[in-house]
Specification:
The chain is of the alpha/beta class and 209 residues long. The protein contains six helices and 13 strands. 22% of the residues lie in helices and 27% in strands. The two termini are 23 Å apart. The relative contact order is 0.22. Bound molecules: zinc ion (ZN). Zinc ion binds next to loops.
């Protein structure tokens, strides 16, 4: 697991851990390492902007962001190119799954607004590994949604920097950002690379009291 420094309860998974959504044995091992319970809350991700509040482990329906105010309740999203985000603030943790659809639809802004309605404010954000602008080739229809974050792949075609876009809209929040690219990094699952069904998780939690 990748542990962003300065975070209370945040970890980004790697391919070597297996798919922790479905592999309960591996999840138990990873949870023991992290000092958290092995039963996590997940959502069925649909590239939308729905935010759910988790008070128990298990599936929380179709959504792309989860927050909790429960201590020792791990919440997780799973990705293989899309951008995983952890938000921390006093009394809560949140995780977000943001591909280009979710990012351009405002999943981050919707999460912040949902937290605000619950009286919660993010104090720091961590952006986990995702497909980088080096490799995230897109058509003009997608690129034009991210005008200030259009880049070029290493093979010379149009790409976008989704993590860079997210970091820019998080301003002035302090942001930790992984620079690893899922597409080129063999230690990370990449759907674009090989159409894998496997995902790495981003898990967040409030420490046990
Ligand atoms: Zn790359």
């Amino acid at each position: 697991m990748i542990r962003p420094s300065g975070f209370r309860g945040a970890a980004f998974g790697e391919a070597s851990e297996g798919d922790l959504r479905i592999d309960a044995d591996r999840r138990r091992l990873v949870s023991a390492d992290l000092g958290i319970p092995p039963e996590w809350a997940f959502v069925s991700q649909v590239h939308g902007t729905t935010v759910v509040r988790a008070t128990t482990p298990g599936g929380k329906g179709e959504a792309d962001a989860i927050f909790t105010t429960r201590h020792a309740l791990p919440i997780a999203v799973a990705t293989a190119d899309c951008v995983p985000v952890v938000l921390e603030g006093t009394g809560f943790a949140a995780v977000i799954h943001a591909g280009w659809r979710g990012a351009s639809s405002g999943v981050f802004q919707e999460t912040v607004a949902t937290l605000a309605r619950a009286g919660l404010t993010a104090q720091r954000a961590a952006i986990g590994p995702s497909i980088g602008p080096c490799c995230y080739e897109v058509g003009d229809d997608v690129a034009e949604r991210f005008a200030d974050h259009v880049a070029t792949t290493t093979w010379g075609t149009t790409s976008i920097d989704i993590a860079g876009y997210l970091e820019s809209i998080m301003n002035p929040l302090p942001v930790w950002r992984s620079e690893r690219c899922t597409y080129t990094d063999a230690g990370l699952n990449s759907y674009r690379q090989n159409r894998t069904r496997l995902r790495q998780v981003a898990v967040a939690w409030l420490p046990p009291v």
